[in-house]
């Protein structure tokens, strides 16, 4: 019952993801962070099989860091998304990764951007997107309430609406969510939305 969604606002991108690690009918933990910081100005939110999700996102993170180390400049968000898409396309013909990705970033000359990349190496630049069972409801909420150039407060309010709708509608809804943003000041954690107690203590105030 994974839920990952994101939207582009005025000068930032917001990503949100559930934090449940599940297998079959068992919940192993409810504080699994599924949004990885790729570098200072990039985030990647992933859903899919836990092993593939962790292995592939770490692989992309290390290769983005390697490029910057070798060349002295970071990849743009577009370049990182195209690299990720290329790796998924290569793996698709050998040993496919069951992982879906929303990649968000901020580039000085371009501004904020978000890319949808699924497990069969489809890539598209979007202003709003989602993966998982929660996408049925979060996409519906964003279709109704999303507008271009939203403020951070409006975007967070819309994310909360999506989370509330997912919790209300899914028969087995994930209890906790993490929200992260990336803007001109970098990628950072914004807040947790909790309904069970094994999230980080500092997040309980959210």
In short:
This protein has 206 residues and is α+β, with helices and mostly antiparallel strands. The protein has helices spanning 50-71, 77-92, 135-145, 152-169; strands spanning 3-8, 12-18, 21-23, 26-29, 35-39, 42-48, 99-107, 111-117, 123-126, 128-132, 177-183, 186-193. Helix 3 runs antiparallel to helix 4.
Please give a handful of descriptors for the protein shown.
206 residues; alpha+beta; Glutamine Phosphoribosylpyrophosphate, subunit 1, domain 1; five-stranded antiparallel β-sheet; 4 helices
Order of strands, main sheet, comes to 10-1-2-11-12
The helicity comes to 25-40%
Distance between the termini: 22 Å
CATH level-four homologous superfamily name: Aminohydrolase, N-terminal nucleophile (Ntn) domain
The CATH topology label is Glutamine Phosphoribosylpyrophosphate, subunit 1, domain 1
- Number of helices, where a helix is a run of at least 4 consecutive DSSP H or I residues: 4
Bulk shape: globular
Major sheet details: 5 strands, antiparallel
Keywords: Cytoplasm, Nucleus, Proteasome
GO cellular component, one term: nucleus
Subcellular location: Cytoplasm; Nucleus
Family: Belongs to the peptidase T1B family.
Give your account of this protein's structure.
- The protein is of the alpha+beta class and 206 residues long.
- Helix 3 (135-145) runs antiparallel to helix 4 (152-169).
- The two termini are 22 Å apart.
- The protein has helices at 50-71, 77-92, 135-145, 152-169, and strands at residues 3-8, 12-18, 21-23, 26-29, 35-39, 42-48, 99-107, 111-117, 123-126, 128-132, 177-183, 186-193.
């Amino acid at each position: 019952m994974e839920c990952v969604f994101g939207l582009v606002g005025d000068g930032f991108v917001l990503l949100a993801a559930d934090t449940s690690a599940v297998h079959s009918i068992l919940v192993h933990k409810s504080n699994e962070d599924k949004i990885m910081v790729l570098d200072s100005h990039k985030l990647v939110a992933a859903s899919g099989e836990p092993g593939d999700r962790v292995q592939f996102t770490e692989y992309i993170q290390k290769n983005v860091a390697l490029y910057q180390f070798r060349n002295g400049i970071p990849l743009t968000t577009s370049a990182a998304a195209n690299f990720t898409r290329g790796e998924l396309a290569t793996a698709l013909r050998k040993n496919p990764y069951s992982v879906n990705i929303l990649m968000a970033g901020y580039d000085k000359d371009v501004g904020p951007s978000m890319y949808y990349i699924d497990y069969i190496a489809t890539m598209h630049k979007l202003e709003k997107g989602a993966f998982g069972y929660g996408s049925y409801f979060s996409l519906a909420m964003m279709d109704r309430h999303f507008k271009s150039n939203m403020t951070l407060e409006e975007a967070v309010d819309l994310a909360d609406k999506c989370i509330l709708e997912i919790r209300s509608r899914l028969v087995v809804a994930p209890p906790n969510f993490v929200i992260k943003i990336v803007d001109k000041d970098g990628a950072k954690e914004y807040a947790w939305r909790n309904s069970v107690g094994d999230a980080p203590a500092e997040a309980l105030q959210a």
